Amino acid sequence: MSSTARLSPLRRGRSVAVVAAVSALAVLAGACGARGGEHITDGAEMNGTPQGGAAATAPADDGAAVDSPDFGTVKAPCGKGDAKVADGEQQGGADTIQIGVPNDRGATIRPGLQKPIWDASVAFAAWCNAQGGIGGLKIELIDMDGKLFEVEAAMQKACGNAFALVGGGNVQDDLQFSGKDGSDFHRCKLIDIPAFAVSSAKSMSNGQVQPIPNPTNTISNTWFRDFFALYPDQAAKWAPVWGNLPSLKIVKTKQEAIIPDVKGMSQVGDFNYPPIGTTDWTPLALSVIDSGATSLSWTGESPDIAKLLEKLKDQGWKGRALLETNQYDKLFIESGSPKALDGSLVRMAPHMLEEADKWPAVRKYLDLVDQYVDGGEVAVLGMQSMSAWLLFVTAANKCAADNGGEISRNCIMETAAATSDWTGGGLHAPQDPDEGPTMKASTCSMLVMVKDGKFVRRYPEIGGEGDDGDGFHCPADGLTKVTADVGEGNVDPTRPPY
Fold this sequence. Notes:
CATH architecture of the largest domain: 3-Layer(aba) Sandwich
Number of helices: 15
CATH superfamily of the largest domain: Response regulator
Structural class: alpha/beta
Helix content: 25-40%
Number of domains: 2
Strand content: 15-25%
CATH topology of the largest domain: Rossmann fold
Shape: globular
Number of strands: 20
Radius of gyration: 22 Å
């Protein structure tokens, strides 16, 4: 099957309220949530049929086909059964399970924001229900569109109705803690397995388990160390460049914590810029050059870093950019010349969409969105959403098996938090999900490079040096502790630890 799902475009708003919308950058910069570079097409062979040739011998089921009951390496997560939701933990029919999906796609100043996570949730629910549901329970989605500024109202839709929140996220996810009955995450006794978490308040809160942890107190140093190993002269003198907002400062602060753990690398500057209204990037480019920086990292929008790199190259800068996952975005490539952007590196924990035919779970994701969502959009955030769904269903199945068919919130959290080496069936590098306050970042990553206007794998090569499994580098000592003050989680001490 050829995937015709669209890569999500980035839409730009015009309202003066866009200042708040820019905090959406933290979703992408801190939560691995970018769009892919090129439209995804089939490889030389799909489902046993070489392109332009005769049918080959059918391969063993690898969980890639839409009609397969498997999802990559996750075997038959959905199906018939006699599961039931614990009494009092949702409103709805006995044969359903109601799940809220936080998102912000209705934001008028950023239309379609996080649409891929809603599309992924719709696709997964439709596919799972076609298999029979979660142990026979049909998934009913609650659309919690927070529209950036209406998160409290979105939480009201779930409070008292939803069994759990799964596969979603809000840009301003700290607003999930309103402190009010009927809209506060803790007071509503909700649980969450999100696609992403942004703020310290959310990412380090209890009552939620992230399939791809984004803690504020630890960060992988693998990508910086690999960068230095590949380009020691350019990596030696590094500077962060970041949009002057508190949420973006946290991302920058976490990056700064890595530098002492990379022998031979030093920080020579610290540059911020107004995230709204900057039209001339020359002064910032000259400041970076004057600092002596030969490499930089960026926390901000894709078009803006492309413009800065243009100005840096115009001024003769020979350095190289090391970027967060949010720059794995077609808009980044479209916003600058190949000469200016070539050689830029992007860290990734999920697989590249361009390599879909190498990883059955990625192909499954793309084809499910294509099959079940009219005008569906695909992105790394969508893969993270499907990973969250798979973690939730895997935990639900175990809970039902161990408790006479009953699925409870406490059991879901305890089971999900005890999971290790989670890959979402092969959507991303191994992770160790855990409850917010005790989770740690994964050390695994790969580096993707911009070359001739496309994203290509740079390191490690699949099966080559540094590949610790499925094309990711995962050194045992690849974790840095962040000791700077980056805020605390919204922890409810009355909730049980998992």
